[in-house]
Specification:
heterodimer; A: 398 residues; alpha/beta; D-Maltodextrin-Binding Protein, domain 2; 10-stranded mixed β-sheet; 17 helices; 10 strands; 14% strand; disordered N terminus; B: 290 residues; mainly alpha; MetI-like fold; two-stranded antiparallel sheet; disordered C terminus
Chain lengths: 398, 290
């Protein structure tokens, strides 16, 4: 990558953070996704790999001289230092491609290949919890050989050790996590919005936005209605969708957004919203009036996970890579740059020495108390997922 | 003999590249989409071709609101574009003088900027705390808690703005073509300015009006960017639904069915409009008086 490209990346990072980029991308990429659509239309039968708990793990092999890593934009240090260090140590040149802009879109793109046991050359991809679960369900990913992941096994933070979709972390390892909670303008609200109910307060009519990501919005609202998103029934989630729908209909909710909410709240078009913690860290740095608050009823903890797809040509090396980023000194560089929740133990100490404000930031290194207030939305069954997605899309107007 | 065959075959030979293009990039995808729209299934279980005509019925009943809204917004935008565009094209064509080309360029220049960026800039202009909202509020046209962004007003305004040149250019082309001697003849026969306009200029510019309205209405009805960026949950158009079915829900059959329904509806609108405005105007030939 040239200096110019890097400079450009830095410039857009100021304005557009990762998720915003992907939302906007969806509008621009429609013509492109028509291709993905065509690719996605083929016949499909069951997946390639066996993803039952007894499945055979990735066999030991030799470290290869190349590796294909598919990730989201702006999700690693600008200078790719981590990848250079990996090359130094293992002699593997990493082809790092920022090709994932949206879970659904990525799925549409790779589905047909994965279904036929072909990873399209990819050795690692990074997708959000529920999509990671779908990949596992469909048999699109390979089982780790845990003996090759000593750092990952040891350093993964306990809260993420056993997510509902992959109880033993056999098929997925966190890359970064984040919270979904309330972001608000301190100078525009009556009082600190401690509860999601404040988003339904008529005083803020037309000044509320929520996320187009179904799980983020629905789980946070469901929690505020007294349901536990880790175990809630479909009916309970549907009640949350209905509540959101009424608020959308009445004009209480101004819009459903991807990351462009950062712009709305900066301008003051919105005042109390549902948003992501990683952005809040950046927004607050620019405008101290913008605050993130974890609602009393709980924040949604989501994670983007590394997985090794079926047919990955360098699966063994991919395991080495996954384990590599679980070394605290390696992860420290990544976390310092991306500002999301770090899934690796031991990084906090390193970063506290570099910059105490990062080490103490609850949105990057949440303590037990913060985490006890976090939930992971349960893995819904495919037919439930369809029903929820459908209902939610209707509510957001499409 | 051989020469004659070659001669007779030549036009067809010349047609080949065009026909090939149409076949590969239009006919085949269209057929494929039709095939897709009659499938049944889900991402998890796979899609099976099943002559599933109920996809169409379900799509219409589930999204009639967005269909109606799309045509309503596109119709309004076309009307506004005509009202704004006609005088503008008229002035450029008849009063432009040596500024004519510069003025035309000014109409086109905004198009040098990407569609997406142009629309995003309206997001800033129409913002709650932006200049337009502040002004409207201070002169009392808009209520204190009123807003422009994420309303029907902003979406229709955005569509009108984005497709205005498609209206102006054909209008200009047909107005500019009018022989000034026709107008002079009108005045010589003691026609008032209004009569000359209504009986000479307007009828002669009808091809431009028809072309402009179609060029504006058709893309506007299928547009989704304006509704996405300038609208809220109560402003979504059928384009947004198709996008969400494709990308978010991976519900390809419904997305394909919706596209076909939209196409059929647009065809119906074009046919009706052509009937009203006259096919001669549509084809660009001038009306001949017997």
């Amino acid at each position: 990558m040239t200096d110019l490209e890097r400079e450009f990346e830095r410039t857009i990072r100021e304005e557009i953070s990762r998720r915003r980029l992907l939302r906007r991308g969806a509008a621009g990429a429609l013509s492109f996704s028509a291709l993905a659509y065509l690719a996605a239309c083929g016949s499909e039968t069951g997946g390639g790999a066996d993803t039952s708990p007894e499945a055979k793990a990735i066999p030991k092999g030799k470290v290869s001289d190349s590796l294909y890593f598919a990730n989201w934009p702006l999700y690693i240090e600008e200078d790719r230092g981590t990848l250079k260090d990996f090359e130094k140590e293992y002699g593997t040149k990493v082809k790092y491609v920022e090709e994932i802009n949206d879970n659904n879109e990525f799925f549409g793109k790779v589905r047909q290949q994965y279904a036929q046991g072909d990873s399209g050359g990819r050795d690692i991809h990074v997708v959000t919890d529920w999509m990671a679960g779908r990949m596992i369900r469909l048999g699109y990913v390979q089982k780790f050989d845990k003996s090759q992941l000593p750092n990952a096994t040891q350093n993964l933070i306990p809260r993420l050790e056993s997510p509902p979709f992959d109880k033993n972390r056999d098929f997925s390892m966190p890359w970064q996590s984040g919270f979904t909670g309330i972001v608000y303008r301190k100078d525009e609200v009556k009082r600190e919005p401690k509860s999601v109910d404040d988003l339904f307060d008529p005083d803020y009519k037309g000044k509320v936005t929520m996320l187009t990501e179904m799980r983020d919005t629905v789980s946070v609202v469901a929690a505020s209605m007294g349901f536990d998103p880790e175990t809630a029934s479909l009916d309970e989630f549907m009640q949350a969708v209905d509540k959101i729908g009424e608020a959308a209909e009445s004009g209480q909710i101004r819009a459903f957004t991807g990351n462009e909410y950062t712009k709305d709240i900066t301008k003051g078009d919105s005042v109390v919203i549902i948003g992501w913690s990683g952005d809040a860290v950046q927004l607050e740095a620019d405008n101290p009036n913008i605050k993130f608050v974890a609602p009393e009823s709980g924040v949604h903890l989501w994670t983007d996970n590394m997985q090794i797809p079926v047919g990955a040509p360098h699966a063994f090396t991919a395991e080495k890579m996954i384990d590599f980023v679980y070394r605290p000194e390696v992860q420290a560089d990544i976390t310092e740059y991306v500002n999301y929740i770090c899934p690796v133990e031991g990084v906090q100490e390193i970063l506290t020495m570099r910059d105490p404000s990062i080490g103490q930031n609850q949105l990057i290194f949440p303590d037990e108390q913060t985490l006890s207030n976090a939930f992971i939305m349960r893995q819904v069954k495919p037919d439930e997922e369809r029903e929820l997605d459908e209902a939610f899309q209707q509510v957001i107007g499409a | 003999m051989a020469a004659r065959i070659r001669k007779a075959g030549l036009p067809y030979l010349l047609l080949l590249p065009g026909l090939g293009w149409l076949a590969i990039f239009f006919a085949i995808p269209l057929g494929y989409m039709l095939f897709e729209s009659l499938k049944q299934g889900t991402v998890d279980t796979g899609f099976v071709f099943n002559w599933e005509f109920s996809n169409y019925a379900n799509a219409i009943s589930a999204f009639s609101k967005q269909f109606v809204r799309s045509f309503e917004y596109a119709g309004l935008a076309t009307l506004f574009a005509l009202v704004i565009g006609y005088p503008l094209a008229y002035v450029i064509a008849f009063r432009g003088g040596r500024w004519r080309n510069a003025l035309l360029l000014a109409v086109i220049v905004p198009f040098f900027v990407t569609y997406l960026i142009r629309t995003l800039s309206w997001e800033t202009i129409l913002s709650d705390t932006g200049l337009v909202s502040d002004t409207l509020r201070s002169i009392g046209i808009m209520a204190d808690d009123g807003r422009l962004l994420d309303t029907t007003v902003s979406v229709v305004a955005g569509i009108t703005y984005n497709f205005l040149p498609f209206m102006i250019l054909p209008l200009y082309a047909s107005l500019e073509r009018i022989d000034p001697r026709m107008l002079e003849a009108g005045y010589d026969l003691y026609g008032r300015r209004r009569d000359v306009f209504l009986h000479i200029t307007l009828p002669l510019s009808m091809p431009g009006v028809v072309a402009g309205t179609l060029l504006t209405f058709i893309p506007a009805a299928g547009d989704f960017i304006n509704a996405e960026l300038l609208g809220g949950p109560n402003q979504t158009m059928i384009g947004n639904v198709i996008q969400s079915r494709y990308l978010e829900l991976a519900d390809y059959p419904t997305a394909a069915a919706l596209s076909f329904i939209l196409m059929a509806l647009m065809l119906a609108v074009v046919v009706i409009w052509a009937r009203i405005a006259g096919t001669e105007a549509l084809l660009g030939t001038e009306r001949r008086e017997r």
